Amino acid sequence: MAGHSHFSPANVEEHFEFNSEGKKRIIYAFIAGVVALVIGIYLLSKGEAGGHEVAAAGHEAAKAGHEAAAEHLSGGAVSHQPEAEEHYNWMNRVWANVWLNAVFFTGIAVVGMFFVSLQYLTKSGWSSVMKRVPEAFPKFLYISLPILILTFFFKGDVIFHWMHHGVTEVGSANYDKIIAGKSGYLNKNFFLIRLVVFGGLWILLWNMLRKKSLEEDLNGGTEYFTQLVKIGTAFIVIFGASSSIFAWDWVMSIDTHWFSTMFGWYMFSSWHVTTYAVIVLTILFLKDKGLMGYVNENHLHDLGKFMFAFSIFWTYVWFEQFLLIYYANLPEETIYFLERWEGYDKLYKSSEILMVILNFLLPFLVLMTRDAKRTRIFLKIAAFLIIAGHYIDFYQMIMPGVVGKHGGYGLVEFGMVTVFASAFIYVISGELTKASLVAKNHPFLPEALHHDI
Amino acid sequence: MSSTTNYILGVYDDEDEVLHAVGEVKAKGIKVEDVYSPFPIHGLDVAVGHERTRLPIAAFMFGTLGMICAFSLISYTMVFDWPMIIGGKDFFALPNWIPIAFEGTVLFTAFGLVSTFCISNDLWPGNKTLPLDIRTTDDKFVMAINLDKNKVSADDIKKALKESGAIEVNVK
């Protein structure tokens, strides 16, 4: 059939070059982030009001309104971290930021692997033109997982209520019966074992998948595809369990008294949609460089649909978690939302509202039409909104529980996210150069090149 | 299809050929009314030059209508007609309304869209419109050209269809 362009692997192979110009720019961004971070830490050390007006206002008002708020918040069975209020260290906010960004970027990295595995498990054809992009993401696990492990090991007691001194010792001033009851699961050794075992499995399976995928480029043949399907399936089984477990471990256990059975889904959905946004931005960046010409508006349309659909999915999970708690109105559950809505003198209320606008309303409206999902500028706008919104989502999950009234948006937050983002971009760019941007011997590549929706 | 219209039908036996033929026939200045196929062919609607469907607009309107209806119903019953305290909430408990508003949106969109689709395609129950060529429900592809909407003579159209690979050309 003459209408179909002749396909040969030789004319699709192409490489991204991470040149010194690009490297320089990212290193400058990294340095700028470090500078902002250092200034932010300096301002924090001079007194927490230095961070940001929000923090300052919160502090001023907290003096007057704190007693009332504390009484209101602890109305139920929960008295939330009373000992943390007494000896608060200004460095806590820095460690909370390290944890926040490490969790956020670990998610983006690992969901790249999840996406590729899912494509293999479902034997999807359309995505084979762009699978090299998410396939490069898990490289960042080599940086973010050690950060998680080290931060937990040395500063875990700052982040986690259940690691505070003496909470599980009968007779201690800090003794907490509820947390002591959870100590069979929430203890330092078991936490580290879970982190190392599952994190190690993620990295191991990604390495296996990456190796097979690159060998397929050299040799071709469908046996690689069969093996990749098996690796992908194994990863999805492991990730199904570990994504929930890490959601409880890394984020939910910060508010140790509180629990939600929706939380694993909730955090996964947030990671998931963010990764789609990062994939879209990476592909559009490469397309702007004149690469990946074979990724046309049909593939972008599919990715846009994913961003649209999973923004709604996130909203569904987030709202469902809220609605069940709102409806049941149990004090030990509602405290979570009270803290984020009315607690700490409404310090977190504006970002809670902003988050829903950024994560649901705007992507929903921007990406609703077919044309928007096929137009680069709309995809870019939506992707940036989603990434910013889900950073705030994670901020809302982690900050109120760790720093409470000492939180805010300041140079520390801005600097830390810049440092992590530029490190992420640097590592991923480096990994993208190591293989052809198109998996040229992928058996479904001809199908993907003729993708038409 | 009223019987007074004059159609010239080119019958093809391959989907790639008919897709290609549409371009060839159109290149000769002939207006193609439609192509009938037993299954969807990628790129055919673009080749024939059909406008994109406006069903999404209908979907949006039905969805909005459904949301408003569900929201009004629950507000009227739970706030005005028979106020009830559930779980100690206000009468107007907005978060509780959202699942109902969502279900109403989905229900109206689904029913509304199926109805709109069927009505706009003459697919109501009891309608006995026969295809121009019964074989398009089996293994043949038919390109229909409306003579009344074309300035090109019937003979030229027949010739163009033959040249583009039609296995037979019928007049209906």
UniProtKB/TrEMBL annotation, chain B:
InterPro entries registered for this protein in UniProt: ActD
Keyword field: Membrane, Transmembrane, Transmembrane helix
Ranges annotated as spanning the membrane: 57-77, 97-119
Tagged with keyword Cell membrane: no
Classification via Pfam families: ActD (PF11821)
Signal peptide limits: none
Protein name: DUF3341 domain-containing protein
Protein species of origin: Aquirufa antheringensis
Organism lineage string: Bacteria, Pseudomonadati, Bacteroidota, Cytophagia, Cytophagales
